[in-house]
Structures are given as structure tokens and as C-alpha cells.
From TrEMBL:
This is M20/M25/M40 family metallo-hydrolase. Residues 212-358 form the Peptidase M20 dimerisation domain. Keywords: Hydrolase, Metal-binding, Protease, Signal, Zinc. Residues 1-18 form the signal peptide. It holds the Pfam family M20_dimer. Belongs to the peptidase M20A family. The lineage of its organism: Bacteria, Pseudomonadati, Pseudomonadota, Alphaproteobacteria, Sphingomonadales. It comes from Alteraurantiacibacter aquimixticola. One of its GO terms (molecular function) is peptidase activity.
Length: 464
């Protein structure tokens, strides 16, 4: 059991966040709760404090007037997941789910400029592991729901806060939550898509919602031989055979393709691209994904190569057993990000054909941790609602669709036929993207506007 008042008092009194005093009370609540969550080391393995993050969020809701029977914390192995339900007036209607995750990736203090699990507020940013992925966004969504309830809003549909505990690793709790909430009307995943700030002015440039994500898959490729003495080399050398296969895979390019989500993105995002050649390629690709010149330009840019189709890349190699022996085994791992609509088996078969090595075997590893999922539908009602909410909070900024090359909890909902949309209210400069990296941080200037975005959006969606 976490003492909420004590933990928040300890965090708030820290010199590291002394600059937080000019926030409004609701903005201060976001800063304090996020800081308290960052201070809890919610990393898989020994000492995992994800369950304590869940207790922190539970206590915050109880302090805001929720009842204990509306909140559930479910321990799973060394982690836990969190579900809080604000019951709507009509129980027959599918709920609106706000999805996030409480766990974070590992961070080693010796590599950071600041301790990753000590929240630091400086220069308008909150630093710490989980600041941008995704404790800050989870807290903003939760505080917005608190505000709506305290303002006596009565939703027609239930509003559910559903936070997983292992999104960064096995996603076991992610799948469990999705199964429990498979009757949802739609999911708003605050860990996915967001707004972009102008690098120079810091003002909102555009906002994107995420309607699809590529399927993550790892494949193991292996060649085995009898081996022997290195003084008597043979043609069937496992390292040579596997190396040649990997070279062919590395040179392979999957067919470029579009869906409604990425077509919308390339069409609209081209106007924000400062490089005329790249902007022209984006427009040409949106019009014709078979345009070879446009594809060549996009493939030459790291920001876009993953957006135009499936990608597979060798990431690890293990081979041999002695310096003076022919290798008996050579193993490689290929990581793929698969464009929606293609089963993993199809991609594995294509890799096998491209490798063109009869002695090589290929298999998927850890398939239970991911699932192939289609894109969410391009829902005009949803797009209209988020557009109105963004405009109400941030002004008339352009709104774009997007597809993620990463993986999130959304895939588990989409695999069950539940529309899930990345819809964070956070705006950041692209140069401030440090999620999973060193010195992770999030800007704090727009907390009030983000809360307004969530309030407007939830009021509309939960009233339908």
C-alpha cells in the first residue's frame, strides 16, 4: 500500500522539481503524479515496482472521490495491470477505453546525466525514465478523467482506464486486458501518435492520430554442419552459407504499399516537409506506391523507409565453437516490422525464398509476445471528434493519420476487432524524442491544453 500524500509530498519537496510552483493546481497534479510514478522503478525483473505504480494511481483516484470497488489491480508474475471503471448511464453501450502502460525499459544510472528514476524538472522539461513513454501521458489522461467526474459530467458510455504492466517486454498483461475489454466501443491509446512542435518557435505544427502499426516479428535463421578441422576446409561452411543468405536478405526490398492511414499521412505530411525533393516524393508515393523514383527517395531517408512497407533486418549473429575448427552451427536473428495485412508466415516464407539456402532453417521466436492485427478503420466520426478536440485545445492545427513502425498495446485490441487509435495529447519537438534512450524527457508547457483536449474528446465520445 502506497501512502499517496506522503509520496507526493516527498517528490514535491525535492529541489529537483522546485520550479513546478507556477502551474495551475491541475497542472501541478500532473507534474507531481508523473514525478512520483517516475521515481518507482517499474522495470521487468527483480525489484519490479510496476505494482506500486498501480497503487499510486489507485490512491490518486480514491483521493479524487472514486470508490474502491471501481478500481482493480491484478498481479501477474512480477508485474500487475490496472483497470478503473467509471460506469456510464447505459451499461449496454461499449465503453471508451483509455489505454497506457506503467512499465518502462531499463535505464542504467551510470549512462545518464541524471539518475533515470529521480524525477528532475529543469528548463521546462520533466526528465526521467518513463517521462515520455508513457507515465506522463497516462497521468494526463487520468487527471482529465478526474476533472470530468469532479465537474459532475455523467457519461452515457463507461470510461475505463486500462494500464498494462509489461508492454515493453512480454505484453502478457496487454493481451489479458484486451480480452477483458473486447466489448469496448473504441480504445484511445495515449502511448502512440501525438503532436509535433515547431523546432524554432515551440508552437504546435500538426497533430497525428495513429490508426495502425506494423507487426513485430523475430526470426531465427540457422545452418548446421558436421564441422571438422580448420586445416581441411569444405564448401559447406555454416558461417559462409549463412553469411551469403544474410547478404541476400539485407539487399532484399519488400513491395512498397499503402493503406488509407498511410495515404492520408503522406498526402498531408508533405506540406510540412522542408526538403522539396522529399515532399514531392511523399506526394508521388501517395498517388502511386509503384513510383520507383519516389520509392527510392523515401527509402533513402531513415524517417520514411519504415513507413512504405515491410522491413526486415539482421540484428544478431552467433557462430562457431573454436578458432581452429570448422563451424558446426551458425545462427542469426532477423527482426521484421510487417505492414498490416500480411501474416507473419507469409513474410517468413519470403525470407526463406530470398535466402535461397537449402541448408538453412527458419523459425519465428517468441511468437506469443506479438499478434498480427489489421489497421483500425478510418472512422469519420472518430476523426471528427479528435479534430474538434485538438482544435478546441490547440487551435486550428492540421490533423494527420499515421501508422507506427513500432508495437503497442493497440495491436491486442485490433486483433480482437476493437478499433484502437493512438491519440496522445502531448506535443513535442522531434528533437526531444528520447523515449527508450538516454535522458528521456517531456516538455511541460502544454499540460493545460492537453487536459482540455482529453476533456473535450471524452465528453463527446462518451456521450454518443
Amino acid at each position: 500500500m502506497i501512502c499517496l500524500a506522503g509520496l507526493l509530498a516527498t517528490v514535491s519537496a525535492s529541489p529537483a522539481i522546485a520550479q513546478a510552483r507556477d502551474f495551475t493546481s491541475q497542472e501541478q497534479r500532473v507534474v507531481d503524479l508523473t514525478s512520483a510514478a517516475i521515481s518507482l522503478r517499474s522495470v521487468r525483473g527483480e525489484g519490479n515496482e510496476t505494482g506500486k505504480v498501480a497503487e499510486l494511481f489507485r490512491d490518486a483516484l480514491l483521493y479524487a472521490g472514486w470508490s474502491a470497488d471501481e478500481i482493480e489491480i491484478v498481479p501477474v508474475d512480477d508485474t500487475a495491470y490496472f483497470i478503473a471503471t467509471w460506469q456510464g448511464r447505459d451499461a449496454s453501450l461499449g465503453p471508451i477505453v483509455l489505454s497506457a502502460h506503467m512499465d518502462v525499459v531499463e535505464a542504467k544510472p551510470e549512462d545518464w546525466e541524471r539518475d533515470p528514476f529521480t524525477p528532475v524538472l529543469a528548463d521546462g522539461y520533466l526528465f526521467g525514465r518513463g517521462a515520455s513513454d508513457t507515465k506522463f501521458d497516462a497521468v494526463q489522461a487520468m487527471v482529465a478523467v478526474m476533472e470530468l467526474r469532479q465537474a459532475n459530467f455523467v457519461p452515457e458510455r463507461s470510461i475505463v482506464l486500462a494500464f498494462s504492466g509489461d508492454e515493453e517486454t512480454t505484453m502478457i498483461t496487454s493481451a489479458m486486458i484486451a480480452e477483458r475489454l473486447r466489448d469496448a466501443q473504441l480504445v484511445l491509446n495515449v502511448d502512440g501518435a501525438s503532436g509535433t512542435l515547431d523546432e524554432e518557435t515551440g508552437e504546435p505544427s500538426y497533430w497525428s492520430w495513429q490508426g495502425a502499426e506494423k507487426t513485430y516479428a523475430d526470426f531465427e535463421l540457422e545452418v548446421t554442419n558436421p564441422g571438422g578441422h580448420s586445416s581441411a576446409p569444405r564448401d559447406d561452411n555454416a558461417i559462409v552459407q549463412l553469411s551469403a543468405a544474410l547478404a541476400r536478405i539485407g539487399a532484399h526490398r519488400f513491395t512498397p504499399e499503402l493503406n488509407d492511414i498511410t495515404r492520408d499521412y503522406f498526402t498531408k505530411a508533405a506540406q510540412f516537409e522542408s526538403d522539396p525533393l522529399l515532399a514531392a516524393a511523399m506526394r508521388a508515393f501517395a498517388a502511386d506506391p509503384a513510383d520507383k523514383a519516389a520509392v527510392a527517395v523515401l527509402r533513402g531517408n531513415p524517417a520514411y523507409i519504415g513507413r512504405i512497407g515491410t522491413t526486415c533486418v539482421p540484428t544478431q549473429v552467433e557462430a562457431g565453437h573454436a578458432l581452429n575448427a570448422l563451424p558446426q552451427r551458425a545462427t542469426a536473428y532477423v527482426n521484421c516490422r510487417i505492414f498490416p495485412g500480411h501474416p507473419k508466415e507469409e513474410i517468413m516464407a519470403e525470407l526463406s525464398r530470398v535466402a535461397d539456402e537449402p541448408a538453412m532453417t527458419i523459425r519465428e521466436i517468441n511468437p506469443e509476445y506479438v499478434v498480427a492485427a489489421p489497421a483500425s478503420p478510418y472512422d469519420a466520426e472518430f476523426v471528427g471528434a479528435v479534430t474538434r478536440a485538438i482544435h478546441a485545445a490547440f487551435g486550428e492545427v492540421p490533423v494527420l493519420a499515421s501508422q507506427s513502425s513500432g508495437a503497442s498495446d493497440s495491436m491486442w485490441y485490433r486483433a480482437l476487432g476493437v478499433p484502437s487509435y493512438g491519440a496522445s495529447g502531448t506535443f513535442m519537438r522531434e528533437s526531444d524524442e528520447y523515449a527508450h534512450g538516454l535522458n528521456e524527457r517531456v516538455p511541460l508547457a502544454n499540460i493545460g491544453r492537453s487536459l482540455e483536449y482529453y476533456r473535450v474528446l471524452l465528453t463527446e465520445l462518451a456521450s454518443q
